Amino acid sequence: MARKNLFEQVSFPKITLKNRFVRSGLWMKAADEQGHITPDLIDTYKALADGGAGLIITEYTYIDANDQPNPRMIGMYDDSFIPKWNEIIAYAHSKDVKIACQIAMGGSQSGFEASKHRRMIAPSAVLNRVTGIMPEEMTETDFQHVIDCHAKAALRVRQAGFDAVQIHAAHGYLLSQFLTPYYNRRKDQYGGTLHNRARLIYEVVAAVRKAVGDDFPVMIKLNFDDFMSEGEGLTFPESLAMFEHLDTLGVDFIEPSGTNLSSGNGITQSFPHIARAIEKQSYFKEQVSEIAKHITTPLILVGGNRNIEVMDDLLNDKNIPLFSLARTLLAEPDLINKWEANPNYVPKCIACNKCGETTPHSCILNRKKKNRDEL
After folding, report:
1. How far apart are alpha carbons 272 and 354 in whole angstroms?
2. Nearest of 164, 180, 129 to residue 55 by alpha carbon
3. DSSP 67
4. Which residues share a beta bridge with 122?
5. For residue range 115-161, what is the model confidence (pLDDT) as tens digits?
6. pLDDT for the residue 369
7. Cα(40)–Cα(29) distance, rounded to whole angstroms?
8. How confident is the model at residue 274, as a pLDDT?
9. pTM for this model (two decimals)
10. Which of 151, 315, 331, 375 has its CA 20 to 30 A from that of 63?
11. Which stretches within the chain are classed as H helix?
12. How far apart are alpha carbons 165 and 99 in whole angstroms?
């Protein structure tokens, strides 16, 4: 059997991509105060479209005006956002690039201007380690509100002309908190066992699917492990049951991720080693390869994908069809084009994880170059 190629066109039941590279969601800190598109964001997404990835996933998008995890996020909480994306989406399509919108709710991890929020909610009334917020435990009304926000936002995503929607259920934001025993101490049908803790995620997936229809790709990003102290977080062995159930719900792509902002010892501590050691790259490969043995839904491998040979082996030997990158594309939006021209090209990103220090989000190497150019 011929080996699969990272740069080949690949077709899935509801979408065809020109290659197997995905730009993973990355908060750009460049929207206006209400979450609308700015010229900076237009330039950012056009550069990504020019750069060669087959699919672009936007940064996380807040879908409730009273639930904004961070400043200068893009929004999709009312219909005013629908036409704002026309130029970006049309440009991406002109480059044969597909584009998906990631939607999210932060809950008690929404620390931005928290005092202005109507209410801060979470699975349980537990102090958030990241924001210091003491939230209110969610009620039945809150559950329905969360489900409705996701469904309505997903419909807006389709109406705006996006090619897919991605539900953000990772990294300690609201849906992710339900999977984390430290934050979810409920005694009802939304707490306790793994499937109870994942129940709201399942309900959101079902509502999003109903809103967008059967022919529109629905993606989800969620943790396979919180990497927290014993008894506090979601663990990899139990997460497999969740992935197996999601496999039955009509999700089109799953992007498994790990850690959350409350873990205190997240994967970011290993970032500096990624640039130097191949064995440190594609750092979720073992877990995602194991997940792939249990489900048929296509998986997207995120995390330290920096070497073509490593990704090629995972594609052909581990049943992982897609590979996503974020920070490396912040440093070099045209990295995929460079790799296609020269598979041995070494990305210039040094994995310092300092790209979030500025507003808008930018690579420290590019900032240095700009400063030199201005001298």
Report:
1. 11
2. 164
3. B
4. 137
5. 566 689 999 999 999 999 999 999 999 999 999 999 999 999 999 99
6. 52
7. 10
8. 66
9. 0.94
10. 331
11. 39-51, 86-94, 140-160, 174-179, 194-197, 199-212, 236-246, 271-274, 285-294, 308-317, 327-331, 335-341, 364-374
12. 9
